[in-house]
Amino acid sequence: MIAATLLLAACLPQTEADSYALDYLTPPEGEAVEVGGMDFLPDGSLIVSTRRGQVWWIENPTAADPADARFHLFCEGLQEGLGLRVVDGEIYVLQRSELSKLVDLDGDKVCDRIETLSQGWGMSGNYHEFAFGLPRDAAGNFYLSCNVGFSSPDWWLG
Q1: Which helix (H) or strand (E) holds 59?
Q2: Beta carbons of 72 and 87 less than 8 angstroms apart
Q3: How far apart are the first and last CA of the chain?
Q4: Of 14, 61, 54, 9, nearest to 34 (Cα)?
Q5: How far apart are CA 47 and CA 89, in angstroms?
């Protein structure tokens, strides 16, 4: 009986409603939010870092009506924020050349200070040197993945 039920379920076509709900949050007009990392604050706000060096604070990101989401520009001027993590309400962003902590001193949803936590992995300036991710282990260590810069060595040319 169980095998027949599983076989029947496997044969039925799936529809979009059978999987995840998909909502579109509309950023402020004229903004291209090219997401590099995201995580939730304890209050449910969504923090999003972008390839363009911005960090957005989005209130009500899971509201029944996506139009109720409110975007606040929290920080800008970073270098390609392609990783983000919230830990105990504190915001960490992985930039191309450093791991930073973004600090809002007065609670106005605007970053007042950027603290460099690590920048020792070296950069040559090559376009392909990106830093990605920001998982964290049980001991509290952050991890990242660095792409390497490269050029076309002579041996590639045949």
Answers
A1: strand 55-59
A2: no
A3: 61
A4: 54
A5: 11
Q: Is the pLDDT of residue 8 over 90?
A: no
Cα pseudo-dihedral 74, 130, 121, 87, rounded to 10? 40
- Band of the pLDDT at 140, cuts 50, 70, 90? very high
Residue 70, helix vs strand vs coil? strand
What is the pTM for the complete model shown? 0.81
pLDDT at 22 over 90: no
When pLDDT is cut at 50, 70 and 90, the band that residue 56 belongs to is very high
Cβ–Cβ < 8 Å for 47, 78:
no
Give yes or no for a contact between 80 and 128, defined as CB atoms under 8 angstroms apart: no
Q: Which CATH class is domain 34-157?
A: mainly beta
In which residue are the tokens 């969504």 written?
46
